[in-house]
Write a structure and sequence with these properties.
Layout (H helix, E strand, L loop, with lengths): L1 E4 L14 E5 L3 E5 L1 H9 L4 H20 L2 H26 L6 E3 L3 E7 L4 H4 L6 E6 L8 E6 L5 H16 L8 E5 L4 E4 L12 H15 L5 E5 L7 H16 L7 E5 L4 H4 L12 E6 L4 H5 L6 E2 L1
Parallel strand pairs: 4-8, 7-11, 7-12, 9-10, 10-11
Antiparallel strand pairs: 1-3, 2-3, 5-6, 5-8, 12-13
Amino acid sequence: MVASPNDESKRSLETAPGFKLNFATNEWIYWKTPRMEELDETVGDIFAAICDREFQLANMIRTKILEWHDKVLEACNVAAELDCVLSFAVAAVERDFCEPSLVNEPVLYVEGGRHPLCELCTQTFVPNDISLDAGSPGSSGLSIITGANFSGKSVCMKQAALIAFMAHIGSWVPAKSCQVGLIDRIFSRVQSRESCATASSSFAIDLSQVALMLRNSTPRSLLLIDEFGKGTQPEDGISLLAASIRELLKRGPDCPRTIVVTHFKELFTLPGLLPPVEEAPIAYGTMSVMRAADAEEGGGGAKEE
């Protein structure tokens, strides 16, 4: 069958010898010749036969592949693993990553750590050091970071977890040097959003997340607590955060490595909320907003106090 546009100026096939109008639509006119009509009678519509043959061939290929099912899966797994390793290698070279050191001690030492994604989205990224040691006497496995909005507190906390995770999966990490103690779980209370699909407020979700980490964390866990207590009255939020920190400190040498980010400065000024510095192994740090010119001079980042 031959089709031509349904246009009065283009109906030239009406006068062509041997062409017969078959039917027309709003856009196209369909024609046939005597030879086409002969093929209709002798061969018929072969479209269905073509589809059947395509399905038959595809089924034959599928059956043949299934005979080598185990070998095909093994090849796919090897290719996927090779692709992953090559991606790690390319990222390590192009992004100036370093080889991490995995140890048994419950520590997390990072010098010049960077967030692997955030540093790609900003013109200037200030590296930060991280020091958590929950096993040595006199050292601290719990760090509390404060600072102004947009100073990078949450980024610093998240990059600590990403660096630890990347080290455990065999990747090099975005830092100058890194030593990571084995971690069994990473718990986070980072950001909660209310949803009609969840029959809980954001504050209730925060409470459940912190309760989950307090119940299930071990000395080898890594805890991230970001702005816990902001969803309720300030005095209640401060009390809940202080109580959670005290609960972790009660574990002594079994306290998991923990990073707490908060705006509650009352946590440090009100007496009795936290144990005295000489009695509790807590590291305090503050972060500040920097101009690009300051960062280029080499200053900034988190400061231990």
